[in-house]
């Protein structure tokens, strides 16, 4: 099969690799209909995370089940499925509490920019769609695999809902889908922080009511000005830097909630400042599996169109071009067709 | 009147000062029946916090209303009242959300180790008891003013409740009353982390089911061993140091809740580690006012006896001796009689 391998920062190659194959009776193998490039893949691509040795990459996927292990009960060969980047048994105490991304049997998916993917813990990870999706639904279902699931989790962690003012730090695909999620959860007012016109347009289409172009302290001052001096009830943080975390913390009112899902890089939270803010802080790797049934249903009924974050579609063999486009911010998110 | 002034680290004096007097029509003046020394007073006493110039000190109080301003409606001269260290109007948006310690009109109390105390925002700060309390109830009511209210808030923020295993980091008065609070909130199992026999005894009396004497990584390993390798559902942090915060974070299972109320000193939380824990973090200065009616009711009906944390009672003129006893850990908490 063809699969993507990162050799070093900036060095992405599509290579001929052994077909993905089951290694445990709880595995499944999925023939991918679509995969994509995540903002978090760029950390390695940009050299912010080390690439110790060449390794397969990619963790977002939808496709058709091609093989299932002897112990798999919940999905069948031929079904169209959506899965999460963190596999889960969906039966342990942590999973039952809704934190499948921390399942005691978790394995992270890391070879999804390919034709075939082995999925561990298939029963607790994969969710079948009601039938074979129309082609136009595939980007939306693919978004559910991570970027929508993560934005949704952030909105949920930030307790976005009726009567709430939600601010969103980060206008990447996760931030934009945080806007969509907050809207779906019933938020009254959604402030997108973005300085890029194309992303602002998408944020407004997804339900943003206000756009703030300022960043850092100025951005915080703007959020306060829009919220009677108090700060937002709910803040979604979808970047993962020191600046974005502090912007999120400072833009939240006392007693408010921050849902942070940008993978933290070189972040140190000052304890004393955090203490005196009185905010709630919750986040981390999103338990996408918790939300998948609901998200698939919303997509299937065409109530949401999260796939709009894909503004560039390429065949898998042009994966390197996709990374370049995202790295250079020419694309919000790139869909790859195997 | 006589009032306590801190002149420098280690230098506490009871002095003759002007009588506390109203400065706004929303003030009240309370003649104190009892006051006490807080663990947080020791930060200045020990020189961890600077003492820029001599200033009055103390923020826990109960007593009888002696004067009320023209705008005060909710309390009357002659009533016995309990108040919080953070005054609040109890009507602003932040107060109505239950975060009175962050009220837009908040003023911190800082002169309560005295005979008389001016209380700003009297209507939204003071809660009257159903009548004049019996003398034996006074220590319990005094505890509600901060140390119980803070422990209760920590237990609430940590979502202690039925079916939950709660770990408590810190065996000072707040940690011990965190144990009592978790018990009242219905926690199934309460693990007190303490290496002092007298405090262990009180923790067990307040409802602890397990005692862990280890600290740091060893303490975390012990909590994990007691919780099937997962960590506690709920962790109360009642110290405020880097070690205690990391102990709390690492002892919590993914998706679990930390209620942190130890005033943070020199704490930097590592973003990446926090991210991958998936815990909820909430705390800060406790909105004691939110809980006062319920706490007073529990004390009035003699269902809880939080005043047991006072293991030394001194007349106010021996306040310096009280600080020394707490600093040298000869006392858990010192009650002062004006």
From TrEMBL, chains A, B:
Residues 7-336 form the Enoyl reductase (ER) domain. It comes from the Bacteria. GO terms for molecular function: oxidoreductase activity; zinc ion binding. Gene3D superfamilies: Medium-chain alcohol dehydrogenases, catalytic domain, NAD(P)-binding Rossmann-like Domain. InterPro entries: ADH-like_C (IPR013149), ADH-like_N (IPR013154), ADH_Zn_CS (IPR002328), ER (IPR020843), GroES-like_sf (IPR011032), NAD(P)-bd_dom_sf (IPR036291). Keywords: Metal-binding, Oxidoreductase, Zinc. Its cofactor is Zn(2+). Pfam families: ADH_N, ADH_zinc_N. The keyword NAD does not apply. Belongs to the zinc-containing alcohol dehydrogenase family. This is IMP dehydrogenase. It comes from Glycomyces algeriensis.
């Amino acid at each position: 099969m063809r699969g993507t391998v990162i050799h070093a920062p900036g060095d992405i190659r599509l290579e001929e690799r052994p077909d993905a194959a089951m290694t445990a009776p709880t595995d499944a193998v999925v023939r991918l209909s679509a995969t994509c490039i995540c903002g978090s893949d760029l950390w390695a691509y940009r050299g912010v995370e080390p690439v110790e040795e060449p390794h397969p990459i990619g963790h977002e996927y939808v496709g058709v089940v091609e093989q299932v292990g002897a112990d798999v009960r919940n999905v069948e060969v031929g079904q169209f499925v959506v899965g999460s980047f963190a596999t889960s048994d969906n039966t342990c105490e942590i999973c039952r509490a809704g934190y499948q991304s921390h399942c005691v049997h978790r394995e992270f998916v890391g070879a999804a920019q390919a034709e075939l993917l082995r999925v561990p813990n298939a029963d607790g990870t994969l969710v079948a769609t009601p039938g074979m999706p129309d082609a136009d639904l595939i980007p939306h279902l693919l978004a559910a695999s991570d970027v929508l699931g993560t934005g949704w989790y952030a909105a949920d962690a930030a307790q976005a809902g009726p009567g709430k003012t939600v601010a969103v730090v980060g206008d990447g695909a996760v931030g934009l889908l945080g806007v969509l999620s907050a809207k779906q959860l019933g938020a009254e007012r959604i402030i997108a922080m973005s300085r890029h016109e194309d992303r602002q347009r998408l944020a407004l289409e997804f339900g943003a009511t206000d756009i703030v172009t300022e960043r850092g302290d100025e951005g915080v001052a703007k959020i306060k000005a829009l919220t009677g001096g108090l700060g937002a009830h709910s803040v979604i943080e979808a970047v993962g830097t020191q600046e974005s975390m502090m912007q999120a913390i400072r833009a939240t009112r006392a007693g408010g909630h921050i849902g942070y899902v940008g993978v933290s890089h070189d972040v140190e939270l000052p304890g004393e400042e955090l203490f005196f803010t009185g905010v709630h802080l919750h986040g981390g790797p999103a338990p996408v599996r918790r939300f998948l049934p609901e998200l698939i249903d919303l997509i299937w009924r065409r109530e949401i169109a999260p796939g709009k974050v894909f503004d560039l579609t390429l065949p898998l063999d042009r994966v390197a071009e996709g990374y370049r486009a995202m790295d250079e911010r020419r694309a919000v998110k790139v869909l790859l067709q195997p």
